[in-house]
Structure formats: C-alpha cells, structure tokens
User: What shape does this take?
Amino acid sequence: MTLTPLPPPADGWQRLLGPWLARDDGADAEWLSQMSLQALASLSRRRHNPLLRLPIAALASRLQRSDARLAQTLFGCHFSNPVGLAAGFDKNGVAAGVWHLFGFGFAELGTVTALPQEGNPRPRLFRLAREQAALNRMGFNNLGAEAVRQGLLAQALPPPGQRPAVLGLNLGKSRSTPLEQAPDDYARSLAALAPLADYVVINVSSPNTPGLRELQDDAPLRRLVERLRQQPACPPMLVKIAPDLADDALDAVVSLAFEEGLAGVIATNTSLDRLGLEQRRLLQTGRCLADEPGGLSGAPLRPRALAVLRRLRASAGPGLPLIGVGGIDSAQAAWERIAAGASLVQLYTGWIYRGPELVPRVLEGLQQQLDRHGLPSLAAAVGCELPWREA
Assistant: This one.
C-alpha cells in the first residue's frame, strides 16, 4: 500500500507554495487547493495506520497549543480553543478526521447541498496576491448530502461531543431547487447529516447561488429555521450572514436568532462589495473586479467584517454566541474580533496564504494578550474591547 505523505510543515509550505501564492498567475488556485485536500483526505482515512503514528505526532506537536484558558463551552459544544477552519475549504468533509492535528479547535465542513452539483464554470477561484485576498464564484460544488454522509462514516470519526475538534456542517440550497422549496431542500441535507454534526450552519449568504441571499430576509429565514427545527435531535443551529447587510437587517437577524432559538451567528461570508478594489484586474480574465461576479475574501474584508460583528454584538448583548470570520490572518486580527464580541474565529484565505503555522501563531498571540491584560480566560476577553497590547 502506498501512503500519501503528510503535508509539508510551515517552512516547507512557504518554500514549496510561497512563490505561487505570492503571484496571481502560476498554478490554478483551485487545483492547488484540491491537491492539498487530497493529501489531507488520504491522511484522514489512514490516520490510525501504525506507520503514520510518529509523523502525525510530530505534526500535532508542532502545530497544536494546549491551554485551558482558551477553552470554552458554547451551545453544548466544548471548544479546546477558539480558532476554526471556515467552511469552503473541506467542502465534502474528506479531511474531517485530521483538522485538529493542525491546531484547529473546530472545523466547519461544506457547504453541502441536498443534491450533488458541479458548481459554476471554471476558472472560479482567483488569487489577489498583492492584497492577500481571493475572489471565488465556486457555486456550492459538492458531492451532495448523502455522499458526504457516507464519506464521513468511512472515516470512522468519534461521535459528536467526543472529538478532538468540534465539527460543524454548513448547509446550502441546491441550485436547481426553487426558492419557495428551499426549506425542504435544506431539511433533506439536515436529515442526512444531523447525526454526524456537532452543530449545523444555515448558509443563506453565499453570493454564488442565484437568489440565495433573499433567504436572509426575515420572513423566508424564519420559515427556513422553523422547518429545520422540526428535525428530530436537531444539532445546535447557527446562521451565516453576508457582510453586505444594512444595520437594520443585522438587527433583524439578531431578533430572529433569539425568537427562534438559534445557537449563534457567523459573521461574515464573502462580499459582493469590491471594497476599494473595483479597478483591480484579474490576470486570468483581463476584467476589473467591478465587472466580475463572485465573493471577495481575505484582508480587504477585515474592516467590514469587524464592523458587522460589532453591530451584532451591540444589538444582541452578551447572550448570543458570535463567530467572526473574514480577513483574519494574524493574532492581532483574531484578538480584535474577540475583543469586539466574537467567542470564536475562523480562518480560510489567511490560512492559505500564511500556511499551517498561522494557527499556533494566533493561539500564542491570544495567550499573550490574556497575560498582558491580566484576563483569566478567553471567555473574559469576549467583547472586552481591550486593544492589542505589544510587549
């Protein structure tokens, strides 16, 4: 049997991938992601093989950080630390068994739809290296809920509540399903995946499925949540929102979350706003971002994602867990989001550019801020609005 080698450590990541990640051209961004994910999928399937025991232990030793002060229990889930992998990278959950080895306290798998779908035409993922950003119009490409369920079962994961990292399942609407039938479509995915999820996320904010964001409006979102809560033994349910919502719409999401018993809100998805990059041209198409479809992620999104989170916290008070995502690529950016009211944070674009060492750097930075501000735990830092403090 041939074993797929472990992904390179951080110095190898930068040595091998750094030259490609520093440029817009070169290897296709989606191909690079898929090659990395294939290696991780093989590792997850074979992680109990005795021949991999030592290299896996070495990987975990290098990237994991253990500190009881960083642990929290939120909506019934125990998070060993607040740093998670955002949805969109492991769309089919093929590496669900190994994300904790990279230091993540949780990972969000998906987005998964009831029906398998290929997504939008390629190319559909573009690097904006100078800005440490990306444009994607993937379109929920995934194998479908039943195939994802079978793939998760094949990895022999521990049951929910007994895993080294919490696993969330992010659910979206099948492209071919009319909006008026969206509740049943989401419910079909939930029925297949609920027993395997520590929590589930209603994704109504991707810009790449036509009409999907209309489900963020109060009435359709309420109908959707009420339909999904009929699922027996429904896991804790969160909603993921767009950064492009106006303040009154954000306030409405908070009201709905309390009224319908949602476990939390994830802020934010990618943005249709070009955030000052309207005239930036994509090398692959020659067109300006203003003329390109898709959602913008990465560093340019950071100020808006932070502002949205602050609005949600001001509207919700301390009683609603918030997960901050969008442009988090350093310990300082993670601390800003937590100090603004996020209990947890998620990485994606920043993790791609910075490599696996980003997670331990973020965790070490959070530990240092707790020390420098004299705080006993990360929970005490949530919403504290204390600034990043240098040594």
